[in-house]
Amino acid sequence: MPDSNENSLNSETVIAHISDLHISNNAFDDEIFLEVVNQINDLCPDMVIVTGDLTDHGYYSEFLKAKEYFSMIQFPLFAVPGNHDARNVGYEIFEELIGERSWVLTKDDDLTVIGMDSSGPDIDRGHIGRPQQLWMENELNKSLKNSNFSIVAMHHHVIPVPKTGRERNVLSDAGDILQSLIDHDVNMVICGHKHVPHLWRMENTLFVNAGSVSSIKLRGKDKNSYNTYHIRPDHIDVILNNINDEKYF
């Protein structure tokens, strides 16, 4: 899919995007996730981004398992928490074992990725909040000044996803966040949460939802999947990877 935003990318960047592992004793398929680890390591991406729900209950033991699985991935990995991760004081364990809940990184001075924490303790709905929004806008201003390709990653979706039932858990401040993203010419917004892969385009921004990579909680005939992004100076390939090796552009 071509991208119309001007940016200073000088070469191809490859990103693997996984979401909604739901590591637990009864909602997680470890064989599928290990297959994904092998596929990602074969891909040799520049980075792996995880958009939340690493765990199913936010338990310490589940986060320990997540850390163990992530150590098998041979490339830089960055994660934001989901609503399931914020249960049972999991938001504190996330920072202890996984990393900061909100972060920003740059690659080769031409790519900016911002990770946002949209979770709240023991609630399913998403919320960014004004302080985090202002921080995001400040980082996006820097990105615009440098003509960087920009990606914002969060767990909760900003725009409702089709075929996911009654809308309940979109960001409570989705309108304000959406305005900030569009005003700052963000190239891509990547999310998870609904376990259904989907892509919207609004203005010049792609809103890409990932399916569940390894949870048994799937809708209809959906399969476990993850996304890969091949970002070039004048083109973006968004690829849906079903675990049975079917790929869709």
Task: Give a quick rundown of the structure.
With 249 residues, the chain is an alpha/beta fold. The protein has helices at residues 30-43, 60-70, 90-97, 130-145, 174-183, and strands at 13-18, 47-51, 77-80, 103-107, 111-115, 149-153, 188-191, 198-202, 205-209, 225-232, 235-242, 247-248.
Give an overview of the whole structure:
- The protein has 249 residues and is α/β, with parallel strands linked by helices.
- The protein is 24% helix and 25% strand.
- The strands form 2 sheets. Strands 3-2-1-10-11-12 form a 6-stranded mixed beta sheet, with no helix packed on it. It has a 6-stranded mixed beta sheet with strand order 4-5-6-7-9-8, with helices on one face.
- α2 (60-70) packs parallel to α3 (90-97).
- 42% of the residues are buried.
Strand fraction: 15-25%
Q: Can you give the helix content as a percent range?
A: 10-25%
Q: Low-confidence segments, ≥5 residues, pLDDT <50?
A: none
Overall spatial form: globular
Topology (SSEs and partners):
Blueprint: E1 13-18, H1 30-43, E2 47-51, H2 60-70, E3 77-80, H3 90-97, E4 103-107, E5 111-115, H4 130-145, E6 149-153, H5 174-183, E7 188-191, E8 198-202, E9 205-209, E10 225-232, E11 235-242, E12 247-248
Parallel strand pairs: 1-2, 2-3, 5-6, 6-7, 7-9
Antiparallel strand pairs: 1-10, 4-5, 8-9, 10-11, 11-12
Helix pairs in contact: 2-3
Give me some keywords for this one.
25% strand; 24% helix; alpha/beta
